[in-house]
Amino acid sequence: MSYSSISHLTCPKCGSEYDDTQLNQLCSCGSPLLVEYDLSSLKGKKKEEVFDTSRNDLWRYHQLLPVRDPENVITLGEGMSPLIAMNTLGKKLGIPGLYMKDEGMIPSGSFKARGAAVGISKAKELGVKQLAMPTNGNAGAAWSLYSARAGIESYIIMPVDAPEITRKEVAVSGSHLYLVDGLISDAGAIVGGLVKEQGFYDASTLKEPYRIEGKKTMGHEILEQFGDSIPDVILYPTGGGVGLIGIYKAIQEWISLGWIKEDKVPRLVAVQAEGCAPIVKAWEEKKTESEFWQDSYTAAFGINVPKAIGDFLVLEAIYKTEGCAVAVTETDISTYQKSVAELEGSFICPEGAATFAAAASLRESGWIKEGEKVICLNTGLGIKYPESVHTAPRTLEKGASPDQVLGHVLV
Question: Quick check: pTM over 0.90?
């Protein structure tokens, strides 16, 4: 059996096909390209026969990943993040079957390592020497670090408001870091110039076909971790939406391979902030594409994406799974970041906190039903966003007494 069952690339809009052994970016019609596999060669096999159970990272799914030669795999041990029961918070929200898929536990401290690992590995296989990408922070951190490991020169452009820690991750990797006084869309315009005039490989979201394949492994893991049970709802913080598209792609692959039934799949929920909710607006209006969101803002910086190139794929995933799209307030994001830490001992990122806020809202409205199994995706470590938490601790003098610490006289 070959290392990968990859067949070709296809355009979800016009149906054009492309050779994955050649460098490809977008389809000639402007649409992102998707990876297709020869699933017929795997049909009838058990999961244990398809997955490489000797590995405990995302490369256990190499048969369903696009890298043909294992010599090109660039890895830091990414994947197989924990699925954690959130019993205390779940009881408070009326969702006893509440879980968190914690992506803060993988290299670079965010789920972006998945897309970087697979995207960089395939770029290496295709002979890429230089790449450029716009980023809100975490993707740039991951792609610059994995590029360094692969020996690929990277140019990373992010908004000036991007989290400082992610800037430092990019800088320490030896990448060429630039800040732009604007949004990720402005960074993307600059990257477009580098691609057009200098011939750089464009690693922008969905402008290369392989990042989504790395993100897809979140879906494989969730389904594998639940065993014979299937979660009812998966909430995903949605900016570019690649992870949600990827999870849906994994679900489709499991259906095609006969591992789950088509009428029993998780409902997918795109979670956005009220200050940047183009997907939510499009879903509420029953549209298949979103409109550019003017003057976008949210402290959950990773989902501050005014217009996603793959918005039609995000919306398709929501519609096909009978899911929905929800916008939450900045106050709710802050509240649930604190609640998850206080009740469950996990310091999660603002984007992850947004999914818990959405779960609370959907349970209150009855959209999440009693007894359902619900997964919130936490996409990164809270410590990558130190400015999201404000503290005002008291300073004690040396030799302070217990009553000074406790604020009252002990009896």
Answer: yes
pLDDT in the model for residue 401:
83
Q: Give the Cα separation of 333 and 352 in Å (integer).
A: 9
Segments in the chain below pLDDT 70? 408-411
Q: Which of 340, 380, 382 is nearest to 103 (CA)?
A: 380
The tens digit of pLDDT for each residue in 101-132 reads 999 999 999 999 999 999 999 999 999 999 99
Q: Domains along the chain?
A: 83-109+215-385 (3.40.50.1100)
